[in-house]
Amino acid sequence: MWVDYKLFSYLLLGPRFNYQAESLLGGILNRPYYKEVENIILMVKQGDYDKLATEYTSCFINDYPKLLCPPYESWYREKTVYGNSALEVAEIYSEYGIKAMKSLPDHVAVEFEFTSFLYSIGQVESAEKFIIKHILSWVPQLANDMIKFGKGNYMRSLGKTLLNFTDFEKNRLSLAVKQ
């Protein structure tokens, strides 16, 4: 599962990380969301990069009059930025000697990157506990917001794929997580 989380961390960082995401595509060949991820990667390779980057920015970084898809756990769980959720995940990261440097600790891509790290070092139980407590508690709503508020096919497709991925994870982990 480390490849899945690493790949999604790249996708959620934006179109400029498309090359890194593409390099991991072979690691998810047997996943039900493979074709969707492949289509997103092709969309970036063959599309108008500036338009796709604008879609990403509008969805996750800056939009007028207000940002509709803040990519932060604290926002979805507490309606604030850098709330208790951010502090909690930062504390978990510190247990592994990790500190989020360029993004807030509860940014969706950072949480996915951390999960990938846990799987890569064999900390499967810790990874799955983190997924259940943090990722599945808010990322499905973020994905739904990306579908609803995305200002183009790229972000809506990414939202649908992310929602399919989190549904896969719920099933894989045999959870009945409320949405």
Describe this protein's structure.
The chain is mainly α and 179 residues long. The protein is 66% helix and 0% strand. The protein is built from nine helices and no strands. It has helices at residues 2-11, 18-24, 34-46, 49-60, 73-78, 84-94, 108-120, 124-149, 153-172. Helix 1 packs antiparallel against helix 2. The chain is globular. The two termini are 23 Å apart. The relative contact order is 0.15.
Rg of Cα set = 15 Å
Biggest beta sheet summary: none
Tertiary shape = globular
| H/I helix tally | 9
Give the SSE string.
HHHHHHHHH
The proportion of strand residues reads under 5%
Mean pLDDT: 94
**What is the total tally of β strands?**
0
* Helix vs. strand class: mainly alpha
Low-pLDDT parts are: none
Indicate the percent of residues in helices: 55-70%
What is the distance, rounded to the nearest whole angstrom, between the alpha carbons of the first and last residues? 23 Å
Task: Compile the SSE list and pairings.
Layout (H helix, E strand, L loop, with lengths): L1 H10 L6 H7 L9 H13 L2 H12 L12 H6 L5 H11 L13 H13 L3 H26 L3 H20 L7
Helix pairs in contact: 1-2, 1-7, 2-3, 3-9, 7-8, 8-9
Question: Can I get a quick summary?
Answer:
The protein is an all-alpha fold and 179 residues long. The chain has helices at residues 2-11, 18-24, 34-46, 49-60, 73-78, 84-94, 108-120, 124-149, 153-172.
